[in-house]
Design brief:
Blueprint (H helix, E strand, L loop, with lengths): L21 H10 L1 H15 L10 H16 L5 H20 L5 H13 L3 H14 L15 H10 L3 H8 L4 H7 L3 H18 L2 H15 L3 H7 L1 H16 L6 H16 L5 H17 L6
GO molecular function, one term: triphosphoribosyl-dephospho-CoA synthase activity
Pfam family, one: CitG
Protein name: ATP--dephospho-CoA triphosphoribosyl transferase CitG
Amino acid sequence: MILLQLKPGNVHRYSNLKEETFGQFITGAIVIGPSLRKAVEKGFNAGEEKLEVSNIQVGDMIKEGVSATRTWARENTNLGTLLLLTPLAAAGGMTIAKETRHTAGKLRENLSNVLRSTDSVDALNVYDAILISGARGLGDVARLSVKDEASKEEIAREDITLYEIMEISSDWDMIAKEWVTDMQVTFEEGFPLLKKFYGEKKDLNAAIVQTFLKILSTHPDSFIRRRHGERIAKKTSERAKTVIEEGGAFTPDGRSVINKLDKQLKEKNINPGTTADLIASSLMVALFDGLKPKL
């Protein structure tokens, strides 16, 4: 659903990236289904107290999803998305098991439990997932580097949890910051904006793109920052603000500017990939909360 929309700088049905194609992203979205289903099932069992929350092992399912993507899509198309959707899926299973009303608020309460119940095995599995994906890690961290075997030994020896790894990385990586804030941008910005825009326009496509622009305009993308530096990340956010001022996805002029920005970003290989991950998590929350869009 999200892949189909023309979000500037991202892959979509009308345009590939230099390194990945629309088909590879679609493939990646399909093959992570089993790992996310497993997360829901384990979360459900934890909600029924048949499994300790600490034994959900989200890291294992993140690694499984990345491995499947690498096998079938041959590229890293969804590491960031899996880092967000896997714990959300587990929290969704818990919420279904425990609650009569399936709301975003209850989902977030259970998510907090899932995130804080990770252990060093989760951390090591996510390190493996990052290496399998070919990603550069969670930013440039001097301590506990993904590529350093001594770091893995320290994680195991000191029982450093995945949540603690995210705390270390949260100052510069948006995905890590989502982990240590119970997904603040997802629940307090992305989800409410999607709900608001869809309620106003009854157009899910436009709501997704407009939410993407709003998040990008206020949060310089950490994927862009890692590849191109802080200046380019901030400049891209400023350009997103300009698009919104032209009407964004809701006006012909705004859509024209979106098309131009998409081409300009791709010419320079600038991809707001983390913002796309946040749209995925925001949409998951919206659907769980009861959003039933007309497709």
